[in-house]
């Protein structure tokens, strides 16, 4: 990334609590080999090394996925002698390569911190939550299950704890607790105002209730990923702004691809004209139902690329000059 980005590029990333992440992954990627023969998350965790084979495609989702996404070896046993050393090396590499690490559980606070780091306005960081599950596909975890996850994903848990602590130190040094509370309140007021303006019924709905097929999020596994309906009768300028905020990530990246590579996009559209509608996400985007497999292949490819580096470089989110308000994309 550094080879193609300007020298003054600002790099940041965001971490999610590995306990919540594991519950989500088990639902969303239920069909991966590590999971598909298990009856429950507890069943997998009780026999984790028996169920988990690191050499099998897509099994990386089941173990230390945070470490994997940053380019590190995720196959470290909870009781490994070098666990602490690996943790220290991973943390040092992340701190070297990233200017800021945010925390998903404190997303609004993270946006305020990002705002201050980049001298942005509230309008620049207002967002709607995307790629989020409905409540009926969420499963509360027992405390014992949470502890099993922390042991199984010991590397992830240690990385998360470190950056959760450093996040609040950044808040104290850049913003201050009282100002953070005020600005979070202002941000949420702005989000509510924007939701009332943009969204029909003011919030997220299940995919079966989304009217515009081009705004339906990709559905995979047992998760029910919600989306939004736009308010009717929006003026053109407001509709464009609102639509950007609620467009699912696959459709959004497809639009960016079309803007950046119009000739390749036109060629792809021509090639997929005869593809069955069941394999296409929508006429608008032309994104096929193989998007998840493509994502998995990309992760595996990047993991192999970085596996032989001693000081492994983290995969980054490079910040380009900002456009309109950003949309918030999360793991369901």
TrEMBL record:
One Gene Ontology MF term: galactosylceramide sulfotransferase activity
Annotated region described as Disordered, given as residue ranges: 267-290
Source superkingdom: Eukaryota
Keyword field: Glycoprotein, Golgi apparatus, Membrane, Signal-anchor, Transferase, Transmembrane, Transmembrane helix
Keyword Transferase listed: yes
Keyword check for Transmembrane: yes
One Pfam match: Gal-3-0_sulfotr
Topology of the protein relative to the lipid bilayer: Single-pass type II membrane protein
InterPro entries for the chain: Gal-3-0_sulfotransfrase, P-loop_NTPase
Gene3D superfamilies tied to this protein: P-loop containing nucleotide triphosphate hydrolases
GO CC annotations on file: Golgi membrane
Coiled coil: none
A single GO BP: glycolipid biosynthetic process
Subcellular location: Golgi apparatus membrane
Family: Belongs to the galactose-3-O-sulfotransferase family.
Name of the protein: Galactose-3-O-sulfotransferase 2-like
Organism lineage: Eukaryota, Metazoa, Chordata, Craniata, Vertebrata
